Amino acid sequence: MGSMxxxxxxxxxxxxxxxxxxRKYPFLTAEQEIDFTRRWREQGDREALEQLVGSHLRLVVxxxxxxxxxxxxxxxxxxxxxxxxxxxxxRYDPERGVRFAxxxxxxxxxxxxxxxxxSWSLVKMGTTGAQKKLFFNLxxxxxxxxxxxxxxxxxxTVAAIAExxxxxxxxxxxxxxxxxxxxxxxxxxMGPEGEDEWQDLLPExxxxxxxxxxxxxxxxxxxxxxxxxxxKLNERERQILEQRRLKDNPLTLEVLSREYGISRERVxxxxxxxxxxxxxxxxxxxxxxxxxxxxxxxxxxAGAQMA
Length: 307
What we know:
With 307 residues, this protein is mainly α.
């Protein structure tokens, strides 16, 4: 086995070399994916990690090429997709019966699209779900409808695109104009005198004291929920859960199995059971009002923060 060249190679340094590396790894069966994933998660087996990642480098390249129409270097797109692939390895659970490629595809696409949105134009692009949907689908739909001009779309075209993407027609018109316009520097002078710049008109986007206080109260509330939930666990459940879910560098199942004198599978079962008990206790406390929530916008289920 090599020295994990495919994992250490940066696509921007040598795209040709990277593409060559993708062909060195065979496609995996479902059984091999499960075996390599368990060996990496439970034993820290770097060879298993290389095989799992290397066999999906071709998927990264394919998805990067699908986003090559935004004027960004293919090597950079592959690099971001590689980041998404590594994130999927850390989160993939083969016990759920989903093939790794299906799971990894979501993370790769998300990483590439976030990079495109950040890089294409920070000034004229937002990050709402509707804007992302329009941004990544508008050109494809215009091409299908043979709308190649950079001007405003015909009303019937706007209506058809809005209906297909389930977005307001006004958003279609606005996004089309944004995609067709150029970027302008915020450092450009506003007038002939050149004393003021456009960036001087930008509002301050840092949170105010009230927002910081609400955020601090929300965090404290969630910590109290967590402390309440941990009380519901027995000592072994609490220790295993803390070591597996609440540490920056969690221990492997192998290490914990030796520490407690039980099998790795038994450690996994205790971990999952403890997490379910913790999540249930936190949710019940939040819903019953046993622990008063601070005023401010809701940010979702308390238990979801543990996932």
